[in-house]
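task queued by scheduler; priority normal; single chain, no ligands, no partner chains; default sampling; output format set to structure tokens
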Amino acid sequence: MKIRLTGLAVAALSLATTASAQLTPAEEGRRVYLANNCYGCHGGRGGGTSFGAPVLRTGEAEVGDLTEVIREGGDRGMPAFPNLNNTTDINNLAAYFRSMRTPAEPIFNNWWEAVPTASIPRPLRLYLAAREKLLRAPVE
């Protein structure tokens, strides 16, 4: 039994590691969005908040406009984010915004995880949760 569980754990870890190398640009954009606290004004999924920040769920994301607003700030009170000065992050943000309201929209919140939890396929998430429960169970 121990050997089988260990083998499954190694396979799960291997699959999770492979998955982290395969995050889509939209998933990487979601990671950037959360890591830079964009949700504070634009909402957790880009739907806006009471601050009056623009709703991002329109599916319209022009990289040039996005680059300008991120680097210089917006005329409606958005501060500049000079730390987001690389093209990859901005392209990934644009991909995330374009994915909104589509089946491809990433929904994870744990941006700090190598493989955000919701990015792990459901069968693997169920296995990992059951394994964790077994490991925490009292030994008789």
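post-processing summary
- Residues 1-23+120-140 form one domain.
- The CA atoms of residues 56 and 100 lie 8 Å apart.
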